[in-house]
Amino acid sequence: MNPRLLGARYHPGTALRTKQLIYLLIAATTNNTHFDRIFKQRRGRVDGFLTVAQASTRFRIGARAASRSMRKLAAQGDATSCHPFGEPAIGAIFDFIRYHKGHLAWRFADEFRANFTNPKI
Asked: pTM value?
């Protein structure tokens, strides 16, 4: 991940858990290799899926608290933007993000995806 994302603020909702959830979504994004960037048509409809059980295990919190955080981030949706410290804003970070019955699906915007890669092929 690009170091400029580590010190970035995310609006709306700058709670620590929201930022950690965004980092977890970055880690769970599977199709963001250098090859995928060259051939953008290889991108899937979504960048990944996350369950309440995965989030609660990762954050060591209860399922209800994890569900609440996931629902809150999904409700903010496309309005969530990234503001690196001392730099211009990246803009919206999601093309879309949806929560349904304990599952979160998302697709990052291309401008935001340029700041992190998945080294696996």
From this structure: 0.82
Low-confidence ranges of the chain (pLDDT < 50): 121
Residue 85's CB is within 10 A of a number of other CB atoms, namely: 9
For residue 48, give the CATH number of its domain: 1.10.10.10
In the block, residue with structure tokens 């690196």: 84
Is 118 inside a domain boundary? no
Q: Measured between alpha carbons, how far is 8 from 56 in angstroms, rounded to an integer?
A: 24
Domain count, the chain: 1
Residue found under tokens 């503001």: 83
Does residue 72 form part of some domain? yes
For 4-111, list the strands marked E by DSSP.
Answer: 9-11, 48-51, 81-83, 91-92, 94-100, 103-108
Q: Is residue 71 part of a domain?
A: yes
Strand 103-108: give its sheet, edge to edge. 48-51, 103-108, 94-100
Count of residues in the chain: 121
